[in-house]
Structure prediction request, 223 residues.
Amino acid sequence: MNEENLKKILEFAARGNAFGEKVTVVGATKTIPADIINRAIADGLKVVAENKVNEFREKTDLIRGAEQHFIGHLQTNKVKYIVGKVSLIHSVDSLKLAAAISDECVKKKVEQPILIQINVGNEETKSGFSPSETERAMEEISRLPLLKVKGLMAMLPKTENTLLLRELSLQMRGFYDKLKEKYDFTTLSMGMSSDYKIAVECGSNTVRIGSLIFGERNYEVKK
Ligand SMILES: *Cc1c(COP(=O)(O)O)cnc(C)c1O
Prediction:
């Protein structure tokens, strides 16, 4: 764990974004053991998130003193392991998944806050709604029982082209503001280790950061 980086990121976030909003730092904890995650929490990290259901199930009861989110692709047959157990699901990327989460909410009699995942660069390899189909999807999703749509999650392309990142981030914020007029939105989840500063400058209020806090991931050790 990199205490220096965590401290810098938390200080950066504490200054808020250009829209005067509070910025939440979500620690992306894939492949990281629970004791190290708990050390980051002791150092001030307030929200942590897994992106794989199995890993979430292994670690969730070992995490102490932080809010837990889910940020990865979720299969409909696994929603039962996540619904009602995390305070926010960032990664609702299809109508089918939204409906499955809602069904599980009804079954468990719980509300589930979610974000709609937007594939802002229209990349073929990434899941999520394209910006153009999102308004219609929102109309359908907002009618589903017990789902609380709190905003959008953007997957930005992996690129060092900061002009492009800036352009897409601003586009996302414009899009978020437009939907915010109609829906009770609070959260725009956008930005990771490599681009969180740009994302926040352009209006993100929630960043998902893994490697800067926890170091490069070693996928060999785990699984
Ligand atoms: C791993 C992950 C992140 C964080 O990635 P880093 O580049 O390590 O900061 C953010 N969002 C999702 C969905 C992730 O799976």
About this structure: Strands lie at 24-28, 47-50, 67-70, 88-92, 112-118, 147-154, 187-189, 206-209. The helical segments are 3-14, 34-42, 53-59, 95-108, 131-141, 162-180, 196-201, 211-214. The pocket of pyridoxal-5'-phosphate is lined by residues 28, 30, 51, 71-72, 192-194, 208-212 (CB under 6 Å).
